[in-house]
């Protein structure tokens, strides 16, 4: 059983003050469906009123913000973060304090981070560990996905505890990182079927780990061991093949699937085809701000530090038209 308390909605640090009544006037609200002129009144971190100023009487002692000529946008939710993640002998530079403080400063008011158990580690113990890192530090609301980094009867049982008792309903699987996190197709089918039974959502890092391992060996043998070798080890078709395979496996298991960090045109095409093939059922995907804001051409011949700072998996692609293509897929 988990030793962590049940998840609670935490009042962010930026709202924990005496003056936590805010009135925003004269702005234009932008929601998911429309934009319109209205005022907003917030008390104790909760939106109490949205509408014309004639319909509300504002109490005294309120902080007033004049948003004339400005947009009022709901706080963002970042569904894919890795705060203080230990990985590959290093630890992510942002912990749950500095990372969520930066999030709030940029208008993101909730994150969903990833618990990544080591192979053969209890998922519940890993969940408790992440909670112990996050609870004392977070400046905004947060949730947790949990990674399935190995498969066994005990993992299947712990999935039930995570779903039914601890409020976790999204689980990340890996088709990459051979020997570390990668699951084979048979295990993925079992995982997807179990997640479906729990009414959860499967997430997948879609790259063909076997091909990447072979390419890595070849590139190292050829003396290519810098950041430039990263994209060479996992070209677009290695990502696209895995996206296609993940969608088929999920469909065969009748399990909702969320493909994380789609980074190439060909992978995006496979995702779009699967959504069309299955009439939009089951299949979802995300891309990253990095994929929409830059590409691999900015990394060529720029020196080790610059190039290494742009390494991610799947990698940025050298095709400069990738950014616009992925943005169009988002718009659709």
Automatic annotation (TrEMBL):
Any one Gene Ontology molecular-function term assigned to this protein's record: dihydropyrimidinase activity
SUPFAM superfamilies: Composite domain of metallo-dependent hydrolases, Metallo-dependent hydrolases
Cofactor dependency: Zn(2+)
Enzyme Commission (EC) number: 3.5.2.2
Pfam families the UniProt entry points to: Amidohydro_1
Domain Amidohydrolase-related: from-to ranges: 72-225
Coiled-coil region: none
Top-level taxon: Eukaryota
InterPro entries: Amidohydro-rel, Metal-dep_hydrolase_composite, Metal_Hydrolase, Metallo-dep_Hydrolases_sf
Name recorded for this polypeptide: dihydropyrimidinase
Native organism taxonomy: Eukaryota, Metazoa, Ecdysozoa, Arthropoda, Hexapoda
């Amino acid at each position: 059983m988990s030793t962590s308390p049940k998840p609670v909605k935490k009042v962010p640090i930026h709202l924990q003050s005496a003056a936590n009544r805010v009135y925003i006037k004269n702005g234009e609200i932008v929601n998911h469906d429309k934009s319109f002129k209205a005022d907003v009144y917030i008390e104790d971190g909760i939106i109490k009123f949205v509408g014309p100023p004639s319909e509300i009487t504002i109490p005294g002692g309120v902080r007033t913000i004049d948003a004339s000529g400005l947009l009022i946008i709901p706080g963002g939710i970042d569904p894919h973060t890795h705060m203080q993640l230990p990985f590959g002998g290093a630890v992510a530079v942002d912990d749950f304090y500095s990372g969520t403080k930066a999030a709030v400063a940029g208008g993101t008011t909730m994150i969903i981070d990833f618990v990544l158990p080591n192979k053969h580690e209890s998922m519940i113990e890993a969940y408790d560990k992440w909670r112990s890192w996050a609870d004392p530090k977070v400046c905004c609301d947060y949730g947790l996905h949990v990674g399935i980094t190995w498969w066994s009867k005990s993992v299947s049982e712990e999935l039930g505890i995570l779903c039914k008792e601890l409020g976790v309903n999204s689980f990340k699987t890996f088709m990459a990182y051979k020997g570390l996190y990668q699951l084979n197709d048979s295990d993925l089918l079992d995982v997807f079927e179990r997640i479906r039974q729990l009414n959860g959502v499967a997430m997948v890092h879609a790259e063909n780990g076997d091909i990447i391992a072979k390419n890595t060996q070849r590139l190292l043998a050829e003396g290519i061991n810098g950041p430039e070798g990263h994209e060479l080890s996992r070209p677009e078709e290695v990502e696209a093949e895995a996206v296609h395979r993940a969608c088929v496996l999920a469909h065969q298991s009748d399990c909702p699937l969320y493909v994380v960090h789609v980074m190439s045109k060909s992978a995006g095409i496979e995702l779009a085809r699967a959504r069309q093939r299955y009439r939009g059922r089951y299949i979802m995907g995300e891309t990253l701000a990095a994929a929409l804001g830059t590409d691999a051409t900015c990394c060529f011949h720029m020196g080790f530090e610059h190039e290494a700072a742009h390494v991610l998996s799947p990698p940025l692609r050298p095709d400069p038209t990738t950014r616009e293509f992925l943005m169009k897929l988002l718009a659709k």
